[in-house]
Design a protein that fits this description.
alpha+beta, Aminopeptidase, globular, seven-stranded mixed beta sheet
Length: 176
């Protein structure tokens, strides 16, 4: 599978995909919320966060010659205008799209949006320390490990370390 990575704004009709992806075991194991997501909860998230501008969320699509395949979502949430920062998040919901570099390409696009459109100074994230593929992708995109919170989160399989990562506008500009 190869094609062009495109980000498009999320809309209510994406709810079925978001719920399916978010509830899949491969995605859910890397999220803080381990509960199943319902359509109602997602639509409330859209109303309270996306529609208010507190979160900028996109659907990641792969455009082929004659088709378009949505594969996941990417966002900047907890946008803090006073301190010019926001929290990054992503998940690739379609299992056959993982490991192909799409998340790194999508991350590049949303960081460009964060720094050039939202005019943020900093984008940060947290990731479980055992999510090595994600950490590698974030590092390729310019994120730097800033700290490790030891045994910070209790997951279904016990306590897990959380890695704190970030990128600033200066770092982004130097890399691009």
């Amino acid at each position: 599978m190869s094609g062009k990575v495109v980000l498009r704004e999320i809309i209510d009709s994406d709810t079925d995909n978001i719920v399916k992806w978010r509830n899949s075991p491969d995605v859910k194991k890397n999220l803080y919320s381990q509960e199943l997501l319902t359509k109602k909860q997602h639509l409330k998230w859209m109303q309270n966060n996306v529609m208010t501008g507190q979160c900028i969320q996109f659907i990641i699509e792969i455009h082929f010659n004659d088709s378009v395949q949505p594969i996941g979502t990417i966002f900047i949430k907890n946008i803090d205008r006073k301190n010019s920062k926001g929290e990054y998040g992503i998940f690739i919901g379609e299992s056959d799209a993982r490991g192909k570099g799409y998340s790194t390409k999508a991350t590049f696009k949303i960081l460009k949006y964060a720094f050039e459109v939202l005019m943020l100074n900093r984008v940060y994230l947290t990731v479980f320390s055992d999510n090595l593929a994600a950490i590698k992708s974030y590092e390729k995109s310019g994120f730097i490990k800033e700290g490790i919170l030891k045994e910070d989160f209790y997951r279904f399989d016990g306590f897990v370390d959380v890695v704190y990562m970030g990128i600033t506008r200066k770092i982004w500009e130097r890399l691009n």
